[in-house]
Write a structure and sequence with these properties.
heterodimer; A: mainly alpha; globular; B: about 300 residues; 4 strands
């Protein structure tokens, strides 16, 4: 860390130079990775999406100390909103509506016009992102309102249940009205189009995106979009962390009663953390849907929620660089396992003894247990500024005698 | 009316299994104020071990009768589950007893994830079929039917719960458990070895989960490595519904939740005019949980509100 320093307060010049250097590296990065094949850039794109998710969850778990085990549900909401508003799916919805509830259906068709009836809705990304963020945020508020006044572990279970409910609905809301197309999922979601340039590449261009006469693969274009979003989210969360609201979150995390006594409206502030985290998840979901071109309930299983939580925990709860590190490590892990561990096993034992997927799950589980037991602040914890003993040492009033 | 009675029976059967698992949650919560997140997976381990024992028995002693095999499977699964749960407590929870709340919850999730992965490695990914051990001849009750497995299940659940009540109310260990739940520090001063009590609590919870697991397999005849997740979650909902920390509450909550689910699944189609079907059965538990937490967070029989920040 000697060469690079991000300490803006004490060494502004050096911090800015370091940031510029990192940014330059990040911009060159996909062109280097591309030499090894587009699939690698694609993996990095997914890693960037995970960073967005992990940073969103970090607001909830890291800053405010609320364990949210159904975070992927908000990602799903964002993705399905995109699926509904930027693909032919809405036409299918109207068709099933006309078939099952003719009155309502005909009225809707008359209201929306034949264009939508035939082709569905195709909104621009500029509308979809705010809508996805708003709907996911609303879901977060809806879920948080009844549960946030309760203790943290109840919240964990309720969010877990919420994640399941969302998945059950996605799986079954294709009958009688076809909202989600059931287990098959929604196909043919429009690629993102910014200022008339489609990031999926124009038809017949072999997924090459032309920007100002210069062509690059579609995955690279998405890389830059996601990178920009990630930087935006990093900026927003860093600013949030040092804001009045961020300090209120940390105060609640450390000691809720004391925070209340200091005049913080704990319920509203917690609700705000929940809603903001959810809306970040929604944006990431919208990006995911456009990037993949299809969404199905499989992508939003509980294991994904746990994976994102593992990223936050492994990297360092509440510390933004740590969370990014955790997300990159755990997002890259399955690929490394696939490309390194499976061939290694083949070479040594002559067959694959433990599949990469199983190994990944084992490592996720182990990481969570071992990190919490031995390094509860994560691999890259936030530097301690507070001049006070740990909350755990103080708060032992009706605790157990030392084990 | 026949549907109603049938769903009532199904609900009772389902509910008694939830109750058995919910007891494990509620007892651990009572003593440690901790949600043993991996408890649902203990149920799964119980079912899997039971199945392995049955498979072993069919090779070693194929002449044994069905009910005897089932009894051996249950008795064999109990110590394995106890051991698993005691190891979980030792590894994942003991060192974090006085840590902030988030920490043991996260290790619990990690342990649960590890258990399912191990189960997947040992028993494979695909669902395994559980053999029919009792006669499949159903017993008719007023237009509805109940299988012999289900009758046995109800009887076993009742017996286990009765045994638990005796243990908690009448024995020295039970008194120590109640004392620790009330106030661990004072109980310690009175000479209660809290570590022993905690280990006993985890072991008893695991034994009940093992019974529920094997009977789950016998009743639904299909088990899988991921089967513990939903029942575990719902059993927790049941424990909250009854009032977490209260063993009578867990029994009541389990039975109630089973009834709500079965009746809900039976009638949701009619109630919503065909808009929602019985595949939404799984959402009832969570809806109940959210309603209970909003209206009466201490549950039906809970004494103190669990909100102690």
């Amino acid at each position: 860390m000697a060469l690079l320093s991000f300490d803006v307060e004490h060494n502004k010049k050096k911090a800015h130079a370091s940031m510029a250097l990192v940014l330059a590296l990040l911009i060159i990065f996909p062109f280097v990775a591309q030499m090894f094949g587009n699939s690698w850039v694609r993996i990095i794109d997914m890693a960037l999406l995970y960073i967005m998710l992990a940073l969103g969850l970090n607001i909830v778990v890291g800053f405010a100390g609320l364990l949210d085990l159904g975070y992927i549900a908000f990602f799903a909401v964002g993705a399905y909103i995109t699926g509904l508003l930027a693909s032919p799916q809405f036409a299918a919805l109207l068709e099933s509506m006309v078939y099952n509830y003719p009155m309502l259906g005909e009225w809707l068709v008359a209201l929306l016009g034949p264009e939508i009836r035939d082709n569905g809705i195709h909104l621009s990304v500029w509308l979809i992102v705010p809508i996805a963020a708003a709907v996911a945020g609303f879901c977060g508020a809806l879920l948080g309102a009844p549960t946030l006044k309760l203790r943290g572990d109840y919240l964990a279970i309720v969010t877990l249940g919420f994640g399941e409910i969302i998945r059950i609905f996605m799986n079954n809301l294709n009958d009688p009205i076809n909202f989600t197309n059931g287990p098959q999922g929604i196909n043919l979601i429009d690629p993102i189009r910014i200022f008339g340039v489609s990031l999926g590449g124009e038809a017949g261009s072999k997924a090459t995106v032309m920007i100002g006469g210069y062509g690059m693969p579609s995955v690279n274009a998405y890389y830059f979009l996601f990178l920009a979003l990630c930087i935006g989210i990093v900026f927003v969360t860093t600013r949030l962390q040092h804001s009045r609201l961020g300090r209120a979150w940390v105060a609640i995390r450390e000691d809720e009663i004391a925070a209340k006594a200091m005049g913080i409206n704990t319920r509203n502030v917690k609700l705000l953390a929940f809603t903001m985290g959810a809306s970040f998840g929604g944006v990431a979901g919208a990006m995911f849907a456009s990037f993949q071109g299809f969404v199905s309930p499989e992508s939003f299983a509980l294991t994904e929620s746990i994976a994102v939580l593992a990223m936050v925990v492994l990297g360092g709860i509440g510390h933004i660089p740590g969370v990014i590190l955790g997300a990159v490590l755990l997002a890259a892990l399955p690929e490394v396992l696939r490309h390194v561990v499976e061939p290694a096993q083949l070479a040594i034992f002559g067959k694959v003894v433990i599949e990469a997927e199983v190994l990944r799950q084992l490592l996720y589980g182990l990481a969570m247990v071992l990190i919490m037991l031995n390094r509860p602040a994560g691999l890259w914890p936030s530097p301690k500024h507070e001049d006070r003993p740990d909350a755990a040492e103080v708060n032992t009033k009706d605790a157990f005698p030392a084990a | 009316m026949d549907t109603f009675i049938q769903q009532l029976i199904n609900g009772l059967v389902l509910g008694s299994m939830y109750a058995l698992v919910a007891l494990g949650y509620t007892m651990v919560y009572g003593v440690l104020n901790l949600i043993n997140f991996a408890h649902g997976d203990v149920l799964m381990i119980g079912a899997m071990v039971g199945l392995s024992i049955l498979k072993g028995l069919s090779v070693i002693a194929p002449e044994l009768s069905g009910p005897l095999c089932l009894a051996i499977a249950i008795i064999g699964a109990i110590p394995v589950c106890m051991l698993v749960n005691i190891i979980i407590e030792r590894v994942a929870y003991r060192r974090l007893r006085n840590a902030p709340r988030l920490a043991p919850l996260i290790t619990a999730i990690g342990v649960s994830y590890l258990l399912t992965t191990f189960a997947m490695m040992i028993w494979g990914r695909s669902p395994l079929s559980f053999p029919q051990l009792l006669s499949t001849e159903p017993i008719a009750i007023g237009g509805a039917v109940i299988s012999q497995t289900q009758v046995l299940l109800l009887a076993l659940a009742l017996a286990s719960m009765g045994g638990l009540v005796l243990l908690v109310e009448k024995t020295k260990m039970g008194r120590a458990m109640r004392a620790t739940a009330e106030n661990p520090r004072v109980a310690g001063l009175m000479g209660v070895d809290s570590n022993k009590v905690i280990v006993a609590t985890f072991a008893i919870g695991a034994a009940l989960a093992a019974v529920a697991g094997v009977m789950w397999g016998a009743n639904y005849s299909s088990i899988q490595f991921a089967m513990g997740f939903l029942p575990g979650l719902k059993a927790f909902c049941a424990a909250v519904l009854g009032g977490i920390g209260n063993i009578y509450g867990a029994m009541l909550g389990g039975i109630l939740l089973g009834l709500i689910e079965a009746l809900g699944a039976g009638y949701i189609g009619d109630l919503t005019g065909g808009f929602l079907g019985s595949h939404y059965q799984d959402i009832f538990a969570f809806v109940v949980l959210i309603i209970v937490l909003t209206v009466r967070p201490s549950g039906i029989m809970g004494e103190r509100v669990a909100d102690r920040a």
